[in-house]
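Entry 0007
Protein: Ankyrin repeat-containing domain protein
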Amino acid sequence: MPSYSLPAAAASPPPKLPLDTHELILTTAVRVTTVACHWNLQTTGRLLCILPRDLVPSPTKAVFIHFPWIDVDHVSQFDCVSTLKFLLKWSQEVDGRPIRNVVKVFPSVIDRATACGSIDSLNWWFYESGLPVGEWTAKGVEHACAAGHVNVLRWWYLSGKEFKISDDAVKCAARHGHLPVLKLLLHDCNMKERMTRDVVAATIECKQWDAVDWWKGVGLPLAAIAVSRLFWGALESNVMDDESTGLSNNVRRR
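Output (C-alpha cells):
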C-alpha cells in the first residue's frame, strides 16, 4: 500500500503561536495550577520559568494576585532584585498591584534581607528603590550571625550605616562555631569588648572545638583560658565552676 506521508525534509513545521497566545496560555495555567495544588507556591512558580518575564509579564502578575500575602518584604529574603523591580514598576501602573508599606511591617524588610544574607536586596532598597525602608533592629544581624552569613555582616560594617549588633548575635555565632563571623567581628570590626566569657562559654557548651582552639590563640586576655577537650569531655556533672579557667558560668554538658 503506498504511503502518502511527506518526507521529513518536505514536511511543513507547525505554525508558531503568537507571543500573546503563549502569555494567555501560561496565565491560565497559573490560575488553574494554583487552585489544583492548593496554593503551593513552589509548584505554581515553575510556570514562571518557561518564558522570560519581560516578554510575558501576565503570568507573574497572576501569581502575585493569587498569593496576596507575598510582597516585597518576602521577595527581599531571596535576593531576587529583578522581581523587586517588577513589583515596583507594576505598582506604578494604572490598576497596578500596590506594594506593601514596608515601614509598618515587622520584622522589617531590612531585617529579613539581612537575616537571609541578601546583599543585592539591601543594595536595592538603600540605593536604588527610592522607597522608605523604616527602622531595622538587631534581630536581622543576630539571625545572620547564627546562619554564618559573613558577607552580609561585612556589608553592614563597610556600608557606613548603623550596624546594630547585640551581644546575643555574637553568642549565636559562637554557639554555631562560625569562625569567619567571629574573626570578622574581632579583627575587622574591632569588637573586642563583645568577646566576653559568656561568648567563650557558649562555644564550649555547644562543643565547637575548632572555635575553642581559635579562642586560645586570639591574643585577648581570654586566650589564657585553658580548655582541654579531654577535660571538658570527661565532665560527669552537669554544672562545673572551675576557678582555673575563670569561667563562673553554668556550663551544661550536652
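Curator remark: The chain is about 50% helix and 0% strand. Residues 19-36 form the longest helix (18 residues).
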